[in-house]
Write a structure and sequence with these properties.
single chain, 130 residues, alpha/beta, Immunoglobulin-like, 2 domains, 4-stranded mixed sheet, 2 helices, 8 strands, 31% strand, globular, metal-binding
């Protein structure tokens, strides 16, 4: 039986080094949230919806994660509303006056943001960002 040539040995070795560096590079190039914080699984950011109907925000209290987007859907049979953060809210946001369609806001700060409808003062809600 013939011993492998130096060239064949070199190609085999180079291939192994290349494969190892590719695998190692991929594993280290994009650390997951779980790797950064033990016991926490990486979860995609959520898109959450608040229904505006029957003169209410439903749900009226919403708990979200940092980076989540909340979308308010105007479904109150054409009745116009706004989604407007209170002056003391953690984040400021405000929709136009709308009778249909949607308004979205992505929350980038932890804390509590209360909001209301500028037209109907009895309508209010809260977004808690953790």
């Amino acid at each position: 039986m013939r011993a492998p040539s130096m060239r064949a040995l070199g190609v085999t070795l180079a291939s192994g080094v290349l494969l190892t560096s590719m695998l190692t590079g991929c594993a280290q190039s994009q650390p997951t949230q779980a790797a950064q914080q033990p016991g926490v699984a990486m979860v995609a950011k959520n898109r959450l919806t608040v229904d505006i109907s029957n003169m209410r925000f439903n749900p009226s209290v919403l708990r979200v994660r940092l980076g989540d987007t909340v979308t308010w859907e105007f479904n109150d049979q054409g009745t116009e509303h706004t989604v407007t953060s209170n002056a003391d809210a953690q984040e400021a946001f405000a929709s136009d006056v709308q009778g249909s369609g949607t308004f979205s806001h992505t929350f980038i700060r932890q804390g509590t943001s209360r909001y209301f409808c500028e037209i109907h003062s009895n309508m209010g809600g809260t977004v808690i960002v953790r």
